[in-house]
Amino acid sequence: MSEESNELDPGSLSGRYARQVVYRNIGPDGQRRLAEGRVVLIGCGGLGSMLANIMVRAGVGYLRIVDRDLTELDNLQRQVLFDEQDVAAGRLKADAARAKLSAINSNVTVETVVADVDAENVERLIEGADVVLDGTDNLATRYLVNDAAVKHGTPWVYAGVVADYGSVMPILPGETACLRCIFAEPPAPEETETCATVGVLASAVATVASLEALEAMKILIGRRDALSRKLVSIDVWSGRLDALDAGADRRAPDCPCCVQRRFEFLTG
Question: What's the pLDDT band for 192 if we cut at 50, 70, 90?
């Protein structure tokens, strides 16, 4: 096989993804499935920029990024796709991310949508996705995504990070607990810590994003049997890791979303 054909075949043992292809749980077939995968990323801040970086380098075929924010100086401490030139130019995160990601891997189709995610557009934004990734920084959007994903049977991976800790949970509608099975109602805003109020460590962002990306890759290559099916929480400062079962047995029998299918956040 020529060098050119190696590059065109994502499952090649000597191409761009060679070190990933030889990994026993991916292999050539898994890599080809990644190349066929469609990912929607909601948010391109700390978690989102790290997720986009990992997924594009891993060889996912299509990535849609939804974000409305401009790059700012305090992003650079943890948001790996942006630099001082982006800040000086006042670039949108979506535009800056697309430029960086296309330079990293031109074989990946990167689409960007500059928009707030709301009840009117969330279903359209996740349409066609094989998996939806949580790169958001607010609970309201996560509950919207949960409603839309469960309604349409779309796998998604919940994640959040603040200060030195964060959580990750893959959600397979109909197979695992959904977000509302575990957290029935969002807490009041005044009860929620944010990066603006308590800070955030880049190492915590990187750790949580890496765990989230790995769960997404399992879904994309068809290895649902390997999913954690747990709410994994990690404190990078202390090194403590906890895991709460989030599989089928944790589905709340009266969950308004995945059992009763009321989708209250989509209807306002």
Answer: confident
Distance, CA of 28 to chain centre: 23
Q: What is the pLDDT of residues 159-171, one digit of tens each?
A: 999 999 999 999 9
User: What contacts 92, CB < 8 A, 6 or more positions away?
Assistant: 67, 68, 69, 70, 71, 114
pLDDT exceeds 50 at position 1: no
Place of tokens 């190349």: 35
Please give the single-letter amino acid code of residue 260.
Q
pTM reported for the whole predicted model: 0.95
CA-wise closest residue to 249 among 183, 170, 172, 175 = 175
The structural domains of the chain, ordered by start, are 37-250 (3.40.50.720)
* Alpha-carbon span 71 to 91, nearest angstrom: 6
